[in-house]
């Protein structure tokens, strides 16, 4: 019988662990789906890990993975994929904002032969005005830069084992899961869902974290920002050429430019363009440096299946 593994990254979600495990277990059992819940504790500072261990004692289908420190959501996603043993692997948030009933719908589509089932937001739920505008703006930038529609995309998706292994086989340290899971291809279909209200706890995403998330993942997935350097250089060249023609015309007609203000403006413009370009190039070099070091995406400190400690059998990130 086929088994569905559900990967649930958790960071400071002590208030939601028990409810999430209970609801998912009930929904999947009622649907007649054999399941495994893979909860990844991403270095939480609260009692998230203790709650995962407590849930495991109640349900033997729960696999708990704990990082040695906080490595980020992307690392938690890949750790969950690596530890999952199911024939199909789903990824969803631990706060139940991704509806469990939609997970059943995704599984039925997988049984029909689809290999990647994408969860697409029909609404973003209730968010603050600033947060919603920031999210829309940066997801718009990411969509244009990566070539993948990020506006209503989410990490909520279900993949066939073959698709999951294809993602895990990629050697890069910095990977954008949301775009990569679309990039791998396979037979894909989308399912729309409405984002539910968080029942407990608070969102871990701020406007600044969205900025960092956008830029980090754009750099991880595409080289488009490097093209900005070329475009910026071309614009500066055209501006300088126009200014040179204007200055020569003024000189030969006896109306030479007095110069100081113009020179300062040009120097500031070119200097800013150069520094911005160096910043973009430097960021890519930093990411290359991280890749060359070949450090693991994450380090697992403990892993439990049900109430049993199986840390020695953990599949660490060794790619």
From TrEMBL:
One of its GO terms (molecular function) is dolichyl-phosphate beta-D-mannosyltransferase activity. Gene3D superfamilies: Spore Coat Polysaccharide Biosynthesis Protein SpsA, Chain A. Keywords: Glycosyltransferase, Membrane, Transferase, Transmembrane, Transmembrane helix. Residues 5-166 form the Glycosyltransferase 2-like domain. Signal peptide: none annotated. Pfam families: Glycos_transf_2. Its EC number is 2.4.1.83. Coiled coil: none annotated. It is found in: Membrane. The chain crosses the membrane at residues 228-248, 260-286. Its main location: membrane. The keyword Zinc-finger does not apply. It is a multi-pass membrane protein. PANTHER family: PROPHAGE BACTOPRENOL GLUCOSYL TRANSFERASE HOMOLOG, UNDECAPRENYL-PHOSPHATE 4-DEOXY-4-FORMAMIDO-L-ARABINOSE TRANSFERASE-RELATED. This is Dolichol-phosphate mannosyltransferase.
């Amino acid at each position: 019988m086929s088994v569905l593994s559900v990967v649930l990254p958790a960071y400071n979600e002590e208030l939601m662990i028990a409810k999430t495990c209970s609801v998912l277990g009930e929904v999947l059992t009622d649907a007649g789906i054999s399941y495994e819940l893979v909860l990844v504790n991403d270095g939480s500072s609260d009692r998230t890990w203790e709650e995962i261990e407590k849930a495991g004692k109640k349900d033997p289908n729960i696999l708990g993975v704990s990082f040695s420190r906080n490595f980020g959501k992307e690392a938690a996603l890949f750790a969950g994929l690596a530890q999952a043993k199911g024939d199909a692997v789903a990824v969803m948030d631990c706060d139940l904002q991704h509806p469990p009933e939609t997970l059943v719908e995704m599984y039925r589509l997988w049984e029909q032969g689809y290999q990647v089932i994408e969860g697409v937001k029909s609404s973003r739920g209730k968010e603050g005005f600033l947060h919603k505008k920031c999210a829309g703006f940066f997801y718009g930038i990411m969509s244009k830069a990566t070539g993948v529609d990020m506006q209503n995309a989410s990490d909520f998706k279900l993949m066939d084992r073959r698709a999951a292994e294809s993602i895990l086989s990629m050697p890069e340290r910095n990977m954008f899961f949301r775009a990569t899971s679309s990039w791998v291809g396979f037979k894909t279909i989308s399912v729309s869902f409405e984002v539910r209200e968080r029942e407990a706890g608070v969102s871990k995403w701020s406007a600044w974290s969205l900025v960092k998330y956008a830029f980090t993942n754009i750099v991880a997935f595409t080289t488009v920002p490097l093209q900005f350097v070329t475009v910026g250089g071309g614009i500066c060249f055209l501006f300088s050429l126009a200014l040179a023609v204007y200055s020569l015309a003024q000189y030969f007609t006896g109306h030479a430019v007095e110069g100081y203000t113009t020179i300062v403006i040009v120097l500031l413009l070119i200097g800013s363009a150069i520094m911005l370009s160096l910043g973009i190039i430097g960021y890519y070099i930093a990411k290359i440096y991280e890749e060359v070091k070949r450090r693991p995406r994450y380090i697992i400190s403990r892993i439990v299946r049900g109430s049993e400690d199986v840390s020695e059998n953990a599949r660490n990130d060794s790619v």
